[in-house]
Specification:
Helix content is 54%, strand content 13%. By secondary structure, the chain is of the alpha/beta class. Strands 1-6-2-5-4-3 form a 6-stranded mixed beta sheet. The protein starts with a helix and ends with a helix. The mean pLDDT is 91. It binds adenosine-5'-triphosphate and magnesium ion.
């Protein structure tokens, strides 16, 4: 009977029922069936979140629980609660996180991305320099169109550390095209140490930089990270 049940679950694609049905107490047929199916549903959802987290390729795991917002100046368009609700993803808006080193930009961007995965969103995390070399490789190997289609399917693209490394002309253009394709279709979080005036030094071209900033900020919330580096604070406190 157990073997037949296993087969039946397999053919109905109930991947988790067999893990749970023996542990669920029986009070009534309705209650039992309900709890067995609920266990199946919960495990499926957890499996989906695990897959989304893996696909996102976060560099570190950070949460919003231990995050303090003291050093962030919010724009009038956004509050901490609204940001955490991830409404900006549904509305295909961008979030630009600008400020000095060690002020918590990557932490917040990562924690929001992890939250988005938990809500079932497709997320990708890239350091901008890595993304640009990836775009260049894909361009050379003929895989660029496929890569872009994959990016189009994402709900949220996190682009970390814009400005640490300047790009060559072709790298800047490839990056610009990707951002253009995301415009009003996907939500993007960008973190950077640079003010907009300095972005030309990264992309090398005034017009291209202007057009890029224009697309990024059209539907965007700009958060200013001020204050001391947390790394510096940790080092001073000996943690
Ligand atoms: N507001 C915060 N609350 C709690 N921890 C924080 C906060 N801000 C930063 N940290 C911690 O401080 C360290 C540095 O933060 P993070 O890497 O996010 O800074 P950053 O702004 O991305 O810096 P960089 O510009 O150098 O990339 C991390 O370990 C992070 O978890
Ligand atoms: Mg960072």
């Amino acid at each position: 009977m157990k073997q037949a049940l296993k087969q039946l679950c397999k053919s109905l694609r109930l991947g988790y029922v067999m893990n749970h049905y023996e542990d669920i107490p029986f009070t009534s047929p309705e209650q039992y069936l309900y709890e067995v199916l609920l266990a199946e549903k919960k495990e499926r959802e957890m499996g989906k979140v695990r897959r989304l987290l893996k696909k996102a390729r976060f560099h570190q795991l950070k949460t919003l629980d231990d995050y303090t917002y003291e050093s962030i100046t919010f724009p009038v368009s956004l509050t901490k609660e609204k940001l955490q609700s991830l409404e900006f993803i549904q509305q295909k808006q961008n979030v630009l996180m600008l400020g000095a080193v060690g002020t918590g930009k990557t932490h917040l961007a990562t924690a929001l991305g992890i939250e988005a995965c938990k809500q079932g969103c497709e997320v990708r995390f890239f350091r901008v320099a890595d993304l640009v070399s990836l775009l260049q490789n894909k361009h050379q190997s003929g895989g660029l169109a496929r890569f872009k289609r994959e990016m189009e399917k994402c709900d949220l693209l996190i682009l970390d550390e814009l400005g640490f490394v300047p790009f060559h002309k072709d790298g800047s253009e490839l990056f610009f095209h990707l951002i253009s394709e995301c415009y009003e279709r996907n939500s993007v979080i960008v973190t950077s140490n640079l003010e907009f005036a300095q972005w030309t030094s990264v992309f090398g071209d005034n017009r291209l930089t202007g057009a890029l900033i224009d697309r990024l900020i059209h539907h965007a919330h700009i958060l200013a990270f001020t204050g001391e580096s947390y790394r510096f604070g940790y080092a001073l406190s000996g943690n």
